Amino acid sequence: MTNSKPKILIVDDEESLVETLKVLLRREGFETTTALSGTEAIEKLSEDPDVVLTDIRMPRVSGIDVLAETKAARPDIPVVLMTAQASLQSAIQAVNQGAFYYVQKPFTNDELLAVLRKAVDFARVKSENRSLWREIRRRDVRAGSKPVGKCRSFLEALQVAETVAPTESTVLIQGESGTGKEVLARYIHELSSRGENSFLSINCGALPESLLESELFGHVKGSFTGALRDKQGLFVAANGGTLFLDEVGEMVPATQVRLLHVLQQHEVIPVGATEPTRVDVRIVAATNADLDEQIRHGDFRTDLFYRLNVIAIHLPPLRDRRDDIPLLAENFLKRFARERGTERKQLADDTLGILMEYDWPGNVRELENALERAMAMTQGEVIKKDVLPERVLERQPLPLVSGQAPVNPALEVIERAYIEWVLRAEGGNKTRAAEVLGIDPSTLYRKLARFEAGE
Which of 68, 217, 276, 278 could potentially form a cystine with 73 if both were Cys, beta carbons 3.0 to 4.6 Å apart? Predict the structure, then answer.
């Protein structure tokens, strides 16, 4: 509640009553906005009222419908119902369904004002408690589940994530498979105001088109063969929270259209249904595909791309952040030991050297799996290289220099020869070789990559 004057949304199909209430509430220090139908009231929820004051009996869209939509789209807004004697039982049932309170017509000004002030105080205390909880959670998240890394490109991506987490902006995370896109998406969620609510995820490339639409948007009974009952989709299930759409580039055009509608209208229409359901969900999407290339080939909608790409974050592959491998390895080994209730194992120097040399096509996920396997196969306290997967052990670096030395070698040839000599002297351990050379390991790896590319 940021306004100094609490805003009340007044909803009634009787215009004279709406005008009377508007004058009364403004005189008592409230800001007001009005709606003469339930449909108009639902549209005005986007104006962020602090309290909704609505009549129950209205044509087509009733006050009970307004309550349901408010709880679905803006669950923190208290709803106060105005009811006549004939609908008193409905008002009592609505309170059991989440309405803050009800006032029975005819009511006095003092009765109404007392209820509205209690509703405003309730909303303010709830908002303050949520802000305090978010700050506590934010500190806990930063201390506990912050993604690990120290290389510049990774820290830049992390800084963007932390900056945009408190906003409602849609985020598109791009990076190769296994780089930790879902880990970063969950981190964004936990730092956001939605952190206490659901974080749900789905791999859009793992399901056929019909099943993906049912999972995302839900379906009604009988909408297709096998639809034996109504099914709630992930957008509704994640209401108030975050939905992570992994491999969003795998969506077929028809599903892209439906997703675009949700992003634009904040509502979903289940498969086979005709009535939309409003949702309040933050979208974090991810892809390892080149969406620009897909757009050029007509496989991905330009308008959907711009809706998703409000905030773009690129996660670098592990081969471009080799200095992070020791940190990641230590973090994984600590976690494995904690989960198994055992002492943490250490990596032998030559084991770490091999991990630093390997290119990790499967990125962080592959490193995690390799270390979990190595820990499971290690009996003692030190993880030796022979328990690493064969694909990691088999990598052989290309020779740095040819056997025939030129008569007048260029400076680069001399540098390459010296680096090779140091590597041989250190048994191929690049970390120790970098220390001998007086350079950072990352600098050494860049030089090696350049030398190999020039072979």
Answer: 278
